[in-house]
Amino acid sequence: MGTFIGHVYPGLFLLSYGLYQAVVVSKAVIFSDSFLYPSSPPRNKGRWASLWKISYGGLLKTLAGSGLIVYEISCVKRGLILMNRELPPRFMYGKEWQHLTMFILLTLNGCVEVMSKNLLPQRCVSLEKGTLVLTFYVLLLLLVSHVQDSAGVELQVHSLLILVVLLLMLVLTVQLWAPDTFQLSVIETFLFQIMGSWLVQAGFILYKPVTGYPWQDDDINDIMFVTTFFCWHVMINALCLLGIYGVSYFWHCCYCPSWKLTGSREAPCYTSTAGPLYKLLQEVEQAEKDDQALLSKSSP
């Protein structure tokens, strides 16, 4: 990951995932649908119905994580070894092993999501969210350790990235208790977009400056403009999220007004017990109590 490609590829993945989530969230908001159990058009049945049930987000994480693992290992010419053979032995390739740990966690998170949505008899949302939160807790620890020998522009770039990861970790932690909340889903999507676009920008700042000249660590203007560029990324991603919602609303309302979505028949697990069936049972029990009260009053 300590290369231009090592920053751009993960950034493009996170940005793509954030844009995909933005479309999913926009659709759920437009149709007042569930974020965890999105509905699908009634025409998507029959032979191709199973394609709509595939966890594309989990599949994307698994493929991207596996590809990044292969890339990270191939970047070390003499092989990614843990310790050398000298006396006393020393640990080798500290940053590369940290990168590898990040990518392994990404792959495992994708596998858990695919398993929960497509392989288990009943989806386990708490398992998906818990694995994702654990991934970001570990990612935050690795990033804090990652910048120990950084300074100047590189330190500022990674500090802003750590800020995004910290905020995302807090949002995901709250989602463990409120997984189907609209506001949290929007913030999560927004932070994924910022994290992805900023990683791409970091690759250009640190390894391929647009001007052709490297950024200067001792120039305060360069360090200040790193923060300025980050603020521009925040504004651009906010406009992008708003634009995706606008396009989705225009598309679904103008081009597909006849779509009436069918709710998912998948039984939600570990959610609130106050569902329609639970309320119906309460009403039946209350009606039985009323009938018994009337009978007791009418009896001599």
H and E order: HHHHHHHH
Distance between the termini: 86 Å
Largest sheet: none
- Using the CA coordinates, give the radius of gyration: 25 Å
Please mark out the parts with pLDDT under 50 across 5 or more consecutive residues, or reply none. Answer: 260-278
Instruction: Write down the overall mean pLDDT.
Output: 77
Tally of individual helices: 8
Q: How many E strands?
A: 0
Helix content class: 55-70%
Strand proportion, as a percent range, falls in under 5%
- General form: globular
- Class based on secondary structure composition and strand pairing: mainly alpha
Report on this model:
Helix 6 (182-206) packs across helix 7 (220-255). It is built from eight helices and no strands. With 300 residues, the chain is mainly alpha-helical. 68% of the residues lie in helices and 0% in strands. The longest helix is centred in the C-terminal third of the chain and has 36 residues, at 220-255. The chain has helices at 4-30, 56-75, 94-119, 125-146, 152-175, 182-206, 220-255, 276-298. It is globular, with a radius of gyration of 25 Å. It starts with a helix and ends with a helix.
Write the layout of secondary structure elements.
Elements: H1 4-30, H2 56-75, H3 94-119, H4 125-146, H5 152-175, H6 182-206, H7 220-255, H8 276-298
Helix pairs in contact: 1-2, 1-6, 1-7, 2-3, 3-4, 4-5, 5-6, 5-7, 6-7
Write a concise synopsis of the structure shown:
The protein has 300 residues and is mainly alpha-helical. The protein has eight helices and no strands. The chain is 68% helix and 0% strand.
